[in-house]
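Case study.
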Amino acid sequence: MTTLLGQIVGSLIIIVALLMGMAYMTWFERRVISRLQVRIGPNRVGPGGLMQPIADALKLFFKEDVRLSMSDRWLYPLAPGISLVAALAVFAVIPVGPTITIGGRSIDLIVQDMPVAVLYLIGASSIGVYGVVLGGWSSGSKYSLLGSLRGSAQVVSYELALGLALVGVVLVSGTMSVAQIVDQQSHLIPYVILQPLGFLVYFTAAVAETNRAPFDLPEAEQELVAGYHTEYSGFRFAMYYIAEYVNLLTVSAIAATLFFGGWLGPFNLLNGPWWLLIKMAVFAFVFVWLRATLPRLRYDQLMRLCWGLLLPLGLLNLLVTALLVVFFSRGG
Amino acid sequence: MLDGLRNLALGFWTVLRHASQPPTTIPYPEVKRELPPAFRGRHRLYRHEDGLERCIGCELCAGACPSSAIYVLAADNDPAHPVSTGERYAEIYEINMIRCIFCGYCEEACPVDAIRLGPEYELADFERRDFVYTKEMLLDPEKYAPKRQYHADVDQKDPELRREIPEDEDLGEVYRRHVPLGVPPEDRPRA
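After joint prediction, the assembly is written out as follows.
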């Protein structure tokens, strides 16, 4: 009973933190990309534009929820929810800090660790593609359909590379529990040093997985209006938007946790949740930097990058890692 | 392959370097760009140094105007109390600022340099009829021009400075003649 209550409270804290983080991620992205493009960016609402996310949220909340006569009756309103729930669910297995003790009770700063947490990460994040596919298909619009077709092909392809990159980490650590992977990095070095290739493959695939530039083909506005969420408005559109940014935060958190030691400081200095936040912020900046720099890939380039480069690199990484792990475990 | 990676890194560095430049955009209503000297904004009518109007009511500006935004009604000068230096003067001089495209042909056409395009460009207003500028408004830009500016977020509306126009006031010939194209010809008022 107490664990269930703890999980509910933990989930609520994580969800609220993610939604707030996502809101300020939009502000951060707009301000940073403005500076990279020699502009000023939103600075009207509140000091430095800090109230802009709240103004945007209010605006979207009060907009009309347009339902097309061509759209599917049940799937059309449901699809954004699938995306959002899947995006929020992934964070459950990511530890945000060490076990702390409050009033004689020890509390793990993680919603629910499980022995197959890495598998859960991949599985939960791939459920999000159902929101994209169903939303695009059920809208009854050609732009949405094309966007969702691209989205499904892209996410399914890049999931392989993403999974392969994570398998390397699992092999090195010998566990699938994210909390234990972090623990192992506390008396070892961060896994990015052992798995540099795996990290590169993971990060590239993660950008594609979140449908962000330069892999934003599912919502390529120059060709597809807004891709799979063309026909959505108001709060349903906001749910897709939230899901995209929560996914961004989540893949940043996964990269920080699995490859950079999560809440561990360098050489275990000042361990705590702030390190996870700092690492996530660095990754968020890299995401924005990517968007400001790279033009969108063509569809064939996208597929060639995945199947022709990332997947072989991932397999090579897996092979070398497996051999080294066997070699060192025999020797040691 | 290596060349591609080098180019990629170069691209990332170029983008990052741009963040150190000052923004090229400006926070507009608070900061305003310096205008080029020949900027074509709100029209001004000029007077001679002795106070007489330069405009002689020749209507060349109205003829040159590609969008028919100018209406001039000339009248003979009273020799005892002349309004302008010429034989005639403009009794009515109106510019419909909604129609005006700020091409500057009027100032090119003017033989006495009476009309010129000035630097004011913030001409937003609330009523369509307020956009028909009369001779008084054009002759005295300091009184009328800078104070008739409205912004969405920096509202400079001052009720004392607004020219109140009663509902039944004659809006002027220029405005009456400019009927939207959607109105069928038989319903248009005779020019």
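Observations recorded in class. Residues 54-331 of chain A form one domain. The longest strand of chain A covers residues 100-102. We will return to this complex in the next lecture.
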